[in-house]
Design goal:
The chain has five helices and two strands. The protein has 108 residues and is mainly α. It has a two-stranded parallel sheet with strand order 1-2. It is globular, with a radius of gyration of 13 Å. The chain starts with 5 loop residues before the first helix and ends with a helix.
Length: 108
């Protein structure tokens, strides 16, 4: 699944070294509700697959949960684990997220 403007919005955030929340991104992309966050997360997970298979940083790392302590929602980490990119036995969620953001921001 894809959402028009999603890749461009994430590229803009990365270029500015910024993150956003799921709600703010859904609003920016004018994703209609109800179920807009679910549609957004589906599209983000599709991008994660694309990024993983291309060896790129996970652009979805730029989208944070409102109540996730400055991290993406749990689904981000579950998907990263399913893609073989994140092993919570070897790295904390915080460290994995920081590494993804550093790559996206050109700091790694």
């Amino acid at each position: 699944m894809s959402l028009p403007g999603l890749a461009e919005a994430l590229a803009d955030l990365a270029a500015r070294g910024e993150t956003t929340t799921y709600g703010a991104l859904a609003e920016r992309l004018e994703v209609p509700g109800p179920g807009r966050i679910a549609r957004l997360t589906d599209a983000l997970e599709a991008l994660m697959e694309e990024d993983a298979f291309g060896g790129a940083a996970l652009r979805a790392a730029l989208v944070l949960g409102r109540n996730s302590g400055g991290l993406p929602a749990r689904g981000f980490f579950l998907k990263a684990k399913a893609l073989g990119l994140f092993d919570p036995q070897k790295m904390t969620a915080e460290a994995f997220h920081a590494a993804q953001c550093a790559r996206l921001f050109g700091r790694a």
